[in-house]
Amino acid sequence: MQEIERKFLLKSTVNFKKEARKNTRIVQGYLNSNPERTVRVRIKGEKAFLTIKGISNESGLSRFEWEKEIPVSEAETLLPLCEPGVIEKVRYEVPVGKHIFEVDEFFGSNDGLILAEVELSTEEEEFEKPVWLGEEVTGRKEFYNSYLSKHPFKNK
Amino acid sequence: MQEIERKFLLKSTVNFKKEARKNTRIVQGYLNSNPERTVRVRIKGEKAFLTIKGISNESGLSRFEWEKEIPVSEAETLLPLCEPGVIEKVRYEVPVGKHIFEVDEFFGSNDGLILAEVELSTEEEEFEKPVWLGEEVTGRKEFYNSYLSKHPFKNK
């Protein structure tokens, strides 16, 4: 599957949380954080997933993605094998027009960072921009979770 | 799961193939070849698997292993993402006493290498040694498939 996503920072002065319909705690680690072959173990609420991603295409918008649900108990045995730098965040699902924004508030060593993502069907697809949406950072590797796991936001 | 395996070179003068009950072609690549968190994509005959292994324990005999069967078509989309150095081999299953030896004959850049492995229930378990069994190489990283994918036998 090809994944088309656009990613943004947030304007810190506006509260997006009151528009969220759901929030879920996420803990994730990387069996490989290399962007050419990222292998991620994620526990998301009551579920867990193993996800493999390839390198982005030239525009930075599209990326190969393979994902399988696995039992949470198995994810818990895999997390200790991961590279140092497990990521903890709460994901808010925020409906905006016809789309759902996934807004991730980071904790631990990435405390203070908030990122919003919207998934699109094509690279050209239009979407409504909420007032709290800030600078676009799509394709910028320093905002990949795999990068943040090794280079925490706090240390910037 | 903990995996207990002992690995051996073969005495080149003895033919093990006439004792084999089955042979299967294997093609495999690594999404991570680091022995601390090996992630392997394997197509084995008509089936495919994603396998994650941790580091060996001190004795080198026991290693954490997690494995899931995946569709061959998905393995084929994951192989191009793998690190350079895909491994090709034929695995012969050779019954010896109460155990099955898995004897791997390598091709491509590891042409000429043959390795035999036997899986045990405990580190102390006894097993019958066939006449073709050579030097034990259990726990030696230069005979890990993940290492061979990057440092082929031919170049030695």
Automatic annotation (TrEMBL), chains A, B:
Pfam families: CYTH. Gene3D superfamilies: Hypothetical Protein Pfu-838710-001. SMART domains: CYTH. Residues 1-150 form the CYTH domain. Signal peptide: none annotated. InterPro entries: CYTH-like_dom_sf, CYTH_domain, NeuTTM/CthTTM-like. This is CYTH domain-containing protein. It comes from Salinimicrobium gaetbulicola.
